[in-house]
Amino acid sequence: MIGKNEAENMVIDRVDTENLRNHMYAVSAIMEELAKELDADIELWRRVGLLHDIDYEETKDNPKEHAKRSAEILEDKLPQKGLKAIKAHNHQHLDTKPKNNLDHALIAADAVSGLIVATALVMPNQKLKEARTESILKKFDDTSFAKNIDRNRILNCKKIGLEKKEFIETSLKALQKIDKKLGL
User: Fold this and answer.
1) What is the CATH classification number for the domain harbouring 42?
2) What is the pLDDT of residues 48-66, one digit of tens each?
3) Cα 49 from Cα 107, distance rounded (Å)
4) Which of 97, 101, 117, 144 is the most exposed place for a label (fewest CB within 10 A)?
C-alpha cells in the first residue's frame, strides 16, 4: 500500500485546486477517526479518504468516469477493498454499490466534511474551533444551507453503527485537529 508521504505527494502533484486538496485532507482526517472508533485499518482508511478524489479535476465534467479513473490511477497503490470503496463513493454513476463499513464511511465522510466546513465559515471568526456539534446538526436540518450537500449521504453513518450526532461529533473533532492545515 502507498505510504503516507507518497500519497500526500500524489495529492500535491495531481490536484491544483487548494479547496479540493483541503477537502481530501478533511476526508482523510475523518476516515482516520472513524477507523479508530470502529477498530478498522487506520492506514487504509486514511489513504482512501485522502485519495478518493485524486481524479476529480480530470473527471469533473464526466461523472461517469469520476472514481473509476481514481481507481485506475491507484490500481497498484491501494488494496482492492480500498479501490472498491473509492468507486462506491460515486455509486450513483458507477456500478459499484456500497457494501461494507469502509464504503459507507467514505460516502458519509465525503459529505459531512463539506457541511462542517460550511458551518465553520459562517461562524463569527470563520474557524473550526468555533463550530459545535449542535450548530452542525441545525445546519444539517436547514436544507437551504449548503444546498449541494446531500444529507442522505451523511446518513450512511448509520450503516457503520453511528448515529448522526455521534458521527458529526467524531468528524468535527477530526477536522479541528487539522484546522491549521485546512486554513480554518
Assistant:
1) 1.10.3210
2) 999 999 999 999 999 999 9
3) 10
4) 144
